[in-house]
Amino acid sequence: MSEKVQKTEQEWKAELTPEQYRVLREKGTERAFTGEYHASKEPGVYRCAGCGAELFSSETKYESGTGWPSFWDPASQDAVETERDWKMLVPRTEVHCAACGGHLGHVFSDGPHPTGLRYCINSAALELEPDSDE
Ligand SMILES: [Zn+2]
């Protein structure tokens, strides 16, 4: 396992945009259809907006119609970690970056094959690194 990224809230605040900070550090959720990547079909690697870790690939991104970027699998099994979120009446599974702990979104079990999972991720938590043509 790689080293965990540890920063103070002050450091995060200085590095992130207010929207990124709200999502990654305060577990906020951006409004549906407002994020940069919800409809993006550009091939590339989605990295953590907080620490740059590789989280998702455009190859597992699909159109869920929810207004948030949706993936059926993370880039690798140890890229993200999950935790039960009891904030709502019906518990949800929260997803965060394994490297820096930044909140990404939630995972639901109504996704497509082969995993049946839907990683519902905030655009603000992601940074797309487009595939180069080289
Ligand atoms: Zn991260």
Please provide a written account of the structure.
The protein has 134 residues and is mostly beta strands. It has two helices and nine strands; from the N terminus they run ααβββββββββ. The strands form two sheets. It has a six-stranded antiparallel β-sheet, with no helix packed on it. Strands 2-1-9 form a three-stranded antiparallel β-sheet, with no helix packed on it. The N and C termini lie far apart (30 Å). The relative contact order is 0.25. The chain binds zinc ion. The site of zinc ion (ZN) has 8 residues, from loops.
Secondary structure elements and their pairing?
Elements: H1 9-15, H2 18-24, E1 44-48, E2 54-57, E3 61-62, E4 70-71, E5 80-85, E6 92-97, E7 103-108, E8 118-121, E9 126-130
Antiparallel strand pairs: 1-2, 1-9, 3-4, 4-8, 5-6, 6-7, 7-8
The chain binds zinc ion (ZN).
Count of DSSP strands: 9
Bound molecules: zinc ion
Number of helices: 2
Low-confidence stretches: none
Question: Secondary-structure element order, as H and E?
Answer: HHEEEEEEEEE
Average pLDDT level: 95
Helix-and-strand structural type: mainly beta
Most strands sheet: 6 strands, antiparallel
With strands numbered from the N-terminus, the spatial order across the biggest sheet is: 3-4-8-7-6-5
Could you write a compact summary of the structure shown?
With 134 residues, the chain is mostly beta strands. Helix content is 10%, strand content 30%.
Q: Keyphrases for this structure?
A:
134 residues; mainly beta; binds zinc ion; 10% helix; three-stranded antiparallel beta sheet; globular; 2 helices; six-stranded antiparallel beta sheet
